[in-house]
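Curious: why this fold?
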Amino acid sequence: MKSNALTTRIVALAGWAVLATLGLLGIAAAAAQVSQQIEPATIAIGEAAQLTVTSSGDSAQVTAPMVAGLEFVAVGQAQHIESINGVTHSTNSVTYQVTARQPGIYTIPGTAGSEPLVLTVTPGGSGNPSAGRSGAASPPTAGATRLNTDGSAFVRLRLGTHDLYVGETVPIDIQVGVRDGMVASLNGLPTLNGDAFTLNKLSTEPQRSAEIIDGKPFTVFTWRSALAAVKPGALSLTMSTPLTVRVRTARPEGAFGDAALDDLFDDPAFQNFFGGVTEREVTVQSQPASFTVMPLPVDGRPADFSGAVGHFSISSALSQNAANLGDPLTLSLRVSGTGNFDRVNSTMLHDVPNWKTYAPTVAFKPADDIGYRGEKTFQQPVIALRSGPQAVPELSFSWFDPTTKRYETAHTSPLSASIAPAPPGSGSDVASNPPPLQSTPPAQSTLAGNGAATGLRADHVDDGRGLESLVPDYYRPAYVAAPSALLVAFFGAWFWVRRREHSAANGDSQTPLPLEPYLKLMDEAGAANDAGLFFKAARGALQTAFASRWHMKPGSITDQDVEQRLGADHDVARLFKLADATAYSGTRLNGVDFARWRSLVRRQINIEDLS
């Protein structure tokens, strides 16, 4: 046993000697090189920028810059050592959070030949409104590094404030550090624990850096995201990440009887090379972060407030300043800034005189990879109901500003459009008011002369007019034949209607030629699931059918005509309205809906007389 132990110690000492020799050969004195970068280069009062100072070569000490009006707080440090072709390179980097006490343009001097940097500080409003509410931004207690039990990894959270309002969104950095040689793989993205907060999507690719903790090298992966609280109260937050770590095989404590040799053989790099490890899945959790989440105030809350919290600005525009009567225009509302864009909503226009409005569509364009900055656009189709100069009313949007702690409302300027009369034959359903229906009162019997009804009476003076026969008219052959003719006409009409119902039921009805193209187009549009084309053809078919019954031109039959003659609740009136909505707001239908509306149109054309 003593011989084996002695042999083992000799091998270990030889290994140490080889490593020491390689290290001495690889040390090369290099000239100090320092670089620095700041991001972003423009901030507002209350925001913070990140300054990273990186040094390589013989210089080992990095000190914080001194600039009047700026405050530098160290929030991270990393060291990276690598050996290439026997030459050892050492790189140190320190990250500072930079805040300003007043607006201005500041110059951060360079060191050891690095270029100076310029930081522009604006009065406020363009960035993170919550960063400066508690003074200079500094790492919270949750940002402290706490290794897991075997010392292989950690999860760390960095954010600028712990005082939030419900719905307020703040940027957050999520850092996962893994000890080199001990962590085999990351098995998933960091996840949020609990339901008191929501997290935007993580940045696409994590930033990668090196860091030395307790003398051990770690690789740190940093994801950026945006955090929001969904309820008030004193809350805490943790995040966790699944990992696969390498665990050494069991070895008696002090097997070599030498602390230095024990540390050498316990080193992950040594064990990975010579064997003696196994893999195990673990979940690493961050230090809890405590928050005070305040409810949004009730006093002063605008009626159109939809829950948006942050700092925003708005603008509006029309797709065209001139159009023909009946042509659709697009009204756009753009909301840009920083905050919780998932709660940025607007009803746009509704019930506006001289305009017909439809439901708006919404699109969001992020200005960063976490959805904290960006622009949300609402687009609403509108149609003018009158020709001439028409005004589009102003739009408004309200939000809560956590910096000023009050509600804000912004208004756009009114817009104008010049609407020309609809071209002749365009068939616009909004071209002026529909003509009133003509109604003829029932004929009234008139009295002759002095008001007495004309006719023979016993005491009437004979005026010389005579009769050829005293047989009453209703006994004469011509009058006797009249009722028979009426009966024949009635039964003929009944037989004709029954035949049309039978033909329609069996699908062999003969539709007049002008309607056939519409019906064929309806079938093709239904097969292609094109709701807009389907309703356009259905409307054309009904206008053509009603034109002959109502003695009107097909293109002049409007929604108002249908409602006046059939009633606002009639299925045909609903179809006309749905045709507009489908054309301008993209309504979608399924197969059952297509079949139902197709059946309605064919029934109105072939059977029902709606005049």
In short: The two ends are 114 Å apart (CA to CA). DSSP finds nine helices and 28 strands in the chain. The longest strand covers residues 233-248. The chain has four domains: 27-124, 132-295, 311-420, 494-606.
